[in-house]
Structure formats: C-alpha cells, structure tokens
C-alpha cells in the first residue's frame, strides 16, 4: 500500500480528500464529472469507492505500508439513485472479525483477500453500494513504488 493515498496521481487528478475515519473520502463536483444528464458520472462514483477501499486498508493496516501490493480483484456495485449534489463521500463497513481473519491469512500465507462493503453518499443518502474484493500480496521489497512513465 502506498504511504499516502493522496499522492497517487489519479487521486490527485480527481481531487479526492480524506475525511475523519479510515475509508471516509470526499470529492467535490466539477463540470468534468458530469454525465449526459448533468449529474455525477457513474465512473466517478466507482473511482471514489475504489479509492475508499484502498484508503481503508492503508489506514487500518499501516504496519504493511510499503510491504504489500493491494489490487482490486472484483467489484459488484449497485446504483441506488442518481447523484446530483455538490459533494460525494464514502463509508466503508466491514466486520472486525473479517479484518482479523484477513490479517492472519496475510501473515501466514503472504497473500489474502478481503471483502469491503463501500457506500458512496450524496448529501448523506446512499447513491452507490458495492462489495469490493481486494487481493493483497506481501512483497519482498522494502517498498512498492509504481512504475515511472
């Protein structure tokens, strides 16, 4: 996991900001985020949810920063209603026992998957709900850095 989610170029490009708890992110609407109806484009909401999952893992397991490679393996999302407000935010909900089992498998097998339930909200109302499966692999490197282009 990156030392800081906010340094990831795509996260910076979107303008994602952290909230107060792990996985709680915020994103303000910009005209570039509009779909053909002038509302939030679905892909922007999905990108925010994906970033929330990565942030949650980074904040919940800081001891693994730079020692693992997390990849989103699968996502199932359901749009509940269109989003049209000035800001979206996220909530990540996962049981403590699930997280403990994930960490135990990661330590024992050097790889593990974990499912995170992520909600994107518009003014406190759920607009996207999804199950995001992350696959995390321990690396032998002291730090994992993205490739330079």
Overall residue-averaged pLDDT value: 91
Indicate the proportion of strand residues: 25-35%
User: Looking across the biggest beta sheet, what order are the strands in?
Assistant: 1-2-4-5-6-3
Number of helices: 3
Helix content: 25-40%
Assigned CATH class: Alpha Beta
Structural class: alpha+beta
- CATH architecture designation: Roll
Tell me the name of the CATH homologous superfamily. Hotdog Thioesterase
Folded structure, characterized:
The structure is a single chain. The protein has 149 residues and is α+β, with helices and mostly antiparallel strands. It has a single domain (5-138), classed as Thiol Ester Dehydrase, Chain A (Roll), CATH 3.10.129.10. Helices cover 26% and strands 34% of the residues. The chain has 3 helices and 6 strands. It has helices spanning 9-14, 42-60, 96-109, and strands at residues 17-18, 25-28, 68-79, 87-93, 111-122, 125-138. A 6-stranded antiparallel beta sheet has the order 1-2-4-5-6-3. Residues 142-149 have low confidence and may be disordered.
Give a brief description.
The protein has 149 residues and is an alpha+beta fold.
